[in-house]
Amino acid sequence: MDIPGLPSMLLSQLGAAAADSKVALVGGAVRDLLLHRVHNDPWRGLPDLDLVVEGHASAFVSRLVEALPAQSLRGIREHGQFGTVELEVVIEGQPLLLDVASARAETYPVPAENPRVTLGGLADDLARRDFSINAIAFDLASGELLDPHRGQVDLQQRCLRLLHSASIRDDPTRLVRGARYAARLGFALEPSSRQQAVKTLKAWPWSWRSGDPPALAPAALGTRLRMELELLVEREPWAEALQVLQQWGGLALLDPALQADFQWPRRLRWAVRLDLPLLMALVAGARQPLALAARLQLPQRQQRLLAQWLELRRQLGERQLDDSLPALPEHWCALLEASGCSP
Question: Rounded to 10 degrees, what is the CA torsion of 27, 32, 33, 34?
Fold first, then answer.
């Protein structure tokens, strides 16, 4: 398998290290390569390489490190209960990031909380993924393309199909991820998956609801939701992605007021002009921006800016009600400086 920009030497080394175990390349690299080779999409650049190993990833990594050329390994970090290993390597002058993970199975005893994870096989690992187009793997030892969930058919039809009937209930961040793929790849949410999104959001099967203490929100409605949104605004065509997410009803995951808000494009364009964080500008349209910021655990600087903005808006609103808005530029300057807001 020839991947543009990937040194052939590394592929052969990966195959040699995988000789005695089941190791597969999964995720974006396989998806994007099939889109490029089979469906004539432009190559979007070499993504990080995600590898899944049946058994403990550390054993495969040890063999791989021995096979790599001297001085090519620049960094290695192991983390997580199941020994996910991240390697930074430089092959033929090209820096690459390899994520090697043990194959695992997962269940969601509580919707939107972190899953319960156990070691599993490659089939289990592919079955736990978000969309069928991301559940295709390339077996490094045999050279076989593994596609147990018909992801290649969905690539051809350019659709996003959730793998399970409870995918969004278990992990609502999958809807945000789908909006990212829709904007980047030009895909549409497959009808039954869109119906699942509508029904799940309407039923709201999660124990936490808007108005509850922000600290009690489950991970997929809190920190993990923030991380997916950060990827959306930082790496994707954010205007298209957020528009898609709103069309699917997904902004309700943040706040019903945001789902009904159509001023966010204007706020975010001003945020770009003023070099302000886009996610903070999005959150500003919520019914209770500070509560949402706390739930997502936005950085403290952004929470302070939101608090200052709310105070300034309150002061301007009061003045507008009694017709005492400043008439001259110097009066505006005095009002703005007296508000206690940062520049």
Answer: 90
